[in-house]
Write a structure and sequence with these properties.
Helices cover 80% and strands 0% of the residues. By secondary structure, the chain is mostly helical. Helix 2 (57-69) runs antiparallel to helix 3 and helix 2 (57-69) runs parallel beside helix 4. The longest helix has 53 residues, at 2-54. The chain is elongated and about 85 Å long. The relative contact order is 0.08.
Length: 118
């Protein structure tokens, strides 16, 4: 029985040592994840600042609604608009009509259904 108690103590001591060694690694992982979140939030804020400068409120509202339904398309459109703004290729503000035009150009053309007789 004394041997069993001693074995349990040694096992518990080994577990506690492993936990203490793992704690700094978990802390480093959490810190890295936090830094990534901060960097992503900063990038998002910069993108939103650029979009506020180049888009009318109506166009931004449409883009926000689009983001709710088709997130990938909205992100793609945002990146294109930011790229155009940074390269100086935008001559005027993007209004709702221009945004609709850009969206129609980005979306693939739908095929007309064909009916075949057998």
């Amino acid at each position: 029985m004394v041997d069993d108690i001693e074995a349990i103590r040694r096992k518990r001591l080994a577990e506690m040592q492993q936990q203490q060694q793992a704690a700094p690694q978990m802390e480093n992982d959490a810190q890295a994840a936090y830094q990534q979140q901060q960097a992503q939030a900063e990038r998002d804020a910069q993108v939103q600042a650029v979009l506020r400068q180049i888009m009318t409120p109506e166009a931004r509202e449409r883009l926000t609604r689009l983001r709710l339904s088709r997130k990938e398309l909205a992100e793609q459109l945002e990146s294109q608009l930011v790229m155009l703004a940074q390269s100086g290729r935008l001559q005027s503000m993007i209004d709702d009509d221009k945004l609709k035009l850009l969206l129609s150009q980005m979306q693939p053309k739908k095929r007309e259904p064909t009916i075949t007789r057998m």
